[in-house]
Amino acid sequence: MGLNKVEHSPLGKAVDYSNEYSADLLFAVPRAKVWVARGLPVCPFQGYDIWNAYEMSWLNNNGLPQVAMGEFRVPAVSANLIESKSFKLYLNSYNQTCFEDWSQVEATLAKDLSACAGAPVVVALRRVNETSQFHSGFDGVSLDDQDIVIDAYDVDASLLGVDDAEVVTETLYSDLLRSNCPVTGQPDWGSVCIEYTGRPICRQSLLKYIVSYRQHSGFHEQCVETIFVDLLAHCAPSELTVYARYVRRGGLDINPLRSTSTSTVGNIRLARQ
Q: What is the model's pTM?
């Protein structure tokens, strides 16, 4: 596995693509570092990261290419997140490698990814004609059609607030989430869904807060964790789940979920994915 300093990762660098299987291409980034720096608990939440891979291929023992769509669930409590470019390089290394059968591929993926993450990673491979994940959007109330003025494009948790009203249980979502890769500066586009029980979160303030990530540099997982922690601190819901679905790059999309409870969601596929 690669060194755990981002500057040592393949992200933002020209690299040669390997067609021969190699677990050494995977690169781990410690999760705890960002939270220790902020003086927060290492894992003030439960959840996982759902990765979807749309460009998976290998050879069977007859040399016949096999293609699949892969789903990987990485626990939020794992020691490391898996750096995305290294994940792509690792998956590409399967392309000209022969495997006995699909179960051997799944077992190899689970072993390598679990070792990199530092916790068990659940792997599911599906044939292309077995997938039916298309969905037009999140269920719930969209925040995006509000007629409001936006003037903050750097993360500002003080924008958040609650209305003076009775406790509600509701689901709100926005397709306006955008942040930037902390190494390359490339934009990461996404949609975020917030399910909670508590005093009503001010919808204008919530949309302004989501848009304030537009110039923010951070990995997908860290952005969702910050949203979760900020909502918990400033709005004090008794229950909270934050779930983001990001637009894919290089055949991979990353979809982090963070929650106050053991929350499970279907691996839906939004229109932009």
A: 0.88
